[in-house]
Amino acid sequence: MSILQTITSPQELSKLSDEQMVRLSAEIREFLIANVSKTGGHMGPNLGVVELTLAIHRVFDSPRDSIIFDTGHQSYVHKLVTGRQDFSTLRQTGGIAGYPDRAESVHDIVESSHASSSLSWADGISKARVLAGEADRCVVPVIGDGALTGGMAWEALNNIAADKDRRVIIVVNDNGRSYAPTVGGLAEQLGRLRRNFLDKVRTHRTYENVMDGTKQRLQNGGPMGQMVYRSLHAAKKGAKDFWAPQGLFEDLGMKYIGPVDGHDQRALEEALTDAKNYGGPVIVHALTEKGKGYAPARADENDQFHAVGVIDPETGEPVHRGGARSWTSVFEEEITAIADEREDIVGLTGAMMIPVGLRSFAQKHPERVFDVGIAEQHALTSAAGLAYGGLHPVVAIYATFLNRAFDQLLMDVALHRAGVTVVLDRAGVTGPDGPSHHGMWDLSLLQIVPGLQIAAPRDSTRLREELREAVAVDDAPTVLRFSKGSVNGEIDALERLHDGVDVLWRTAADAEHGAEAEQPYAHDVLIVSVGPMAELSLDVAQRLADQGISATVVDPRWVLPVPDSVVSLAARHRTVICIEDGVKAGGVGSRIRQSMREAGVDTGLNEVGLPVEFLAHGTRGEVLARVGLTAQKITQDVVGQVLGTKVPYARPLPGETFPTGQIPSLRTRKA
């Protein structure tokens, strides 16, 4: 039996010798490579935190001591030593989550995997411990993968540093990378810091007591004493900055230990023990290697296997190479072409140059693409400034991370009518990364931003044309959103209406009975399809046709503001459904309903979208099926609406009682 198999709780780690700990680290890396290669997941970050995670659990007592992972994708080793060693269904329906999950273990605290939040959690938890009379309990946030570039982390540091008696040990997992190498002045400053023997002296309480006592006596000694104190303090600071430079954290009043070799088990435990014994806020700076122990990961210059699909564990090569293009790759190609044509186009992203498709743009025009680090708020306001300077910024981020920059989009971009295009990758249900990564909130959030325009392409051709339309707008913010994964097949329109709305389907008119001429409505059902839901919408239309219910399917292309033709078409149909992959509360369907009411159109509308819930991980198809976004379920509901058995009822035909529960179908009427 391997050592790993004997570990069912963190407390059992204390029984192991140094030699056994080395063996355990090797076993964990072998386990991660063998298992994550089968399911996909965040391999590189976890290979890099093996010794660091083990050291934390050897020095601290979880769950009495609170260990917080930021970002949560570096928690696989933590899961293994807290009794979760079945990785066969990692990130799959019913399997363990790819991030901390309170439902799985009392050792998990923060489920959200949005970076840079751990220190705020630590600030709040440590304050609660003090108020509860449990000041001896430690709080250990592990912040890494570039998360210190986020401004929220520094807001929290400012508060933590102000209280010298809270036991907060901040572990900086410094691998020099987020997805790609970490950028900015912070990364450069961290690189200049080095571990020194003075750390042990400076984190000893006796040292602190002597220094505080000396300071107080000299400052109380009149002008001469104060002058001596200032001179000695300046000399001490100069000597310390030479031997152990740490100005970045000292300016906040924080004790700093490091850097420590993040793969030296004994050195890590020694540093963490010193920090624990100090009794106040301390930063422990650990230098780690992303992808440690796995040659294919270390050789990957892009992101050192930050996240992988199913791969061959020997070579690191993907087992299945998808033939279809991804939405991101289509965007990458088109934005690069646009940048070639227009010198005013600039790109911004938050530590995601490769994942959001700005790499080619950056390679061809490096002076016009800016990676601002994990700082979405800053990215949006910086974009507003760039627009004021006469440029057209394109801010490319994951849809789930737009939530963090809503205020900046509203007050800095929209209020100033800035020509900024926001491109949201991974919009809608993303699948295996779970609740914090579904990009399902954007359509509801963005509805209330004055002047903002939202495009949702259904295929690659529409993505290209809508991106070009977006960057042509210079007096208002525009948003382009698309899904994760492979782009849908091309769906050509039957007709493009005067305001850009595409008609994708019309049920054929019954010429023999003069259906179009005699019926008061064009068709029974108007289906408004949002972006990638076009294939599903057409499937529903075909199923309705098979049951004698006629339909029109339209793709607005630009879902905000609501096109006039959509409202006009709604007036000529008996009922309307809007199918979207965002939260249906306050989403596109809700906005169409409001526009209909403002225009005096009383056709019933049913919003078909995602519930206001945090959706568990699984494949995109599985998640959509769980919430009823399938052709079969939607068709059943629409049939009920047309027959008058389900609200909202379809408007009755002339001469029919409404509702009766027995309204004849189109097929019956034809007979």
From TrEMBL:
Annotated signal sequence is: none
The UniProt note on the cofactor reads as follows: Binds 1 thiamine pyrophosphate per subunit. Binds 1 Mg(2+) ion per subunit.
Pathway linked to the protein: Metabolic intermediate biosynthesis; 1-deoxy-D-xylulose 5-phosphate biosynthesis; 1-deoxy-D-xylulose 5-phosphate from D-glyceraldehyde 3-phosphate and pyruvate: step 1/1
In short, the EC number is: 2.2.1.7
Q: Name one GO cellular component term.
A: cytosol
- MF terms in GO: 1-deoxy-D-xylulose-5-phosphate synthase activity; magnesium ion binding; thiamine pyrophosphate binding
| Main EC class the enzyme belongs to | transferase
User: What HAMAP family does UniProt report for this protein, alphabetically?
Assistant: DXP_synth (MF_00315)
Question: What PANTHER family does the entry give?
Answer: 1-D-DEOXYXYLULOSE 5-PHOSPHATE SYNTHASE-RELATED, 1-DEOXY-D-XYLULOSE-5-PHOSPHATE SYNTHASE, CHLOROPLASTIC
Supply the NCBIfam families for this chain. Answer: dxs, PRK05444.2-2
Q: What is this protein called?
A: 1-deoxy-D-xylulose-5-phosphate synthase
User: Which source organism?
Assistant: Nesterenkonia jeotgali
Taxonomic path:
Bacteria, Bacillati, Actinomycetota, Actinomycetes, Micrococcales
Gene from which the chain derives: dxs
